[in-house]
Fold this protein.
Amino acid sequence: MARKFTTPRGTVDILPEEQPYWRQVLRVAEQTALAFGYRRIDTPVFEQADLFVHGTGEATDIVQREMYIFQDRSGEMLALRPEGTPNVCRAYLQHGMASRPQPVKLYYVAPAFRYERPQAGRLRQHTQFGCEAIGSSDPALDAEAIELLWRMYEALGLDDLYVLLNSIGDQSCRPAYVARLRVYYELHLAEVCDDCRRRYDQNPLRLLDCKNGQCQPVIAGAPAITDALCEPCAAHFASVQAYLDAAGVAWQLTPRLVRGLDYYTRTVFEIVPGDAGSQGTIGSGGRYDGLMEVLGGPPTPGIGFATGIERIILNLRKRVVEVGPDPLLRVVVAAVGEGPRVAAVALVSRLRRAGVQAVVGDGTRSLKAQLRQAEGLAPQYVVIVGDEELRRGRLQVRERATWNEERLTEGELLARLSD
RNA sequence: GUGGGCGUAGCCGAGCGGUUAAGGCGCCAGGUUGUGGCCCUGGAGAUCGAGGGUUCGAAUCCCUCCGUCCACCCCA
């Protein structure tokens, strides 16, 4: 049908029926983050575009072709947040958080925007829950971030998940490795796919992540970055692994795992479902020890992750995980005729002030219709107010599920409701 | 950004060149004057995603666009 207005491509409405999932996921996410000592931070939906150009990285797809970027009326270049980490780091610097006890551990729930071609599990606006621990390079924080994410999924009832873990080194060892990788690939360019030839030029690390069948033998023969780590990076990585084991989180060493963002150093990880489709990653993150300097701050290490709420819910639905229903409506008051309507409005007003969720039936409809309406609203009690009830000072109160009917005074009704 | 599938009322879904465009769910109303879940009856709701074209005639064929889904790409 010809609708005049619809949601923009790649965006969705979250209808009342879906809200229980959101409430549940956000509740668990926040609880878990708080339990791990993280505190909430909120940052603007839009920021100076350069924050992401420099922070997320000029070479990334996100910056090159996916940002929602615009000029405001003063001519300033702004961008809708494509991911959360640069905002949090900017806030850390802006508010002098280096003078707080380190590390500063922050979490956020925020929409992210990327101009991409939508498909299941990939939207132009999606919601990320993320955590960042800034100001320490302790590998225990890396392990803790991974564990936090893992425990959160666990609490939500998601199983069949896998932690993929890798280290991609730092400035002192990665460049040499990338050079070696290039030398290796130079000899095999004829055997790999077109995308890989492009990656060879633009983003060599990503060569390892190619899913094209013809490239797999070449990947298998490539030097592994985990063999090329410098001593400090190797030691750090070993500690991360040991701490994960200590925390009881199972992980899989995945040398081919690299990440799309420029700022990652050392630890990178993803959590994927066992039956993952192409948009399978539900959460991922890593260490970004060089990011703060890029943003103009002093050298400050950091580790963090983000997970997509929509993808979590997708997986919860796939597994038919139960979530609590909406808080139930407790009373619907049906009334026909002006006198009873006035009394009914006054009654629900008092009920609500007493903390009871209550509504009146639609006064433009018959009593029968109001009762049908009440059925749809599924309250605990249905109350009927008519002239007779007003005369007697007693309400007709029905427990909807049992049809059990009583004549009660308002006080008795309230007592019943407070059981 | 590339390739492919799909697009009929709020939802599911028949029809696939000539029909008043089925049916189900849901919604609304009625089945005597104030009584809900089942049942019965009735009603509202569709410019057949949009715009062009072919044809005497198009939901049905063609083109373009839009949306959605799948794969790639990328990533949460």
The two ends of chain A are 50 Å apart (CA to CA). Residues 331-417 of chain A form a domain with the Rossmann fold fold (CATH 3.40.50.800). Chain A has a mean pLDDT of 92. Chain A has two domains: 16-173+229-318, 331-417.
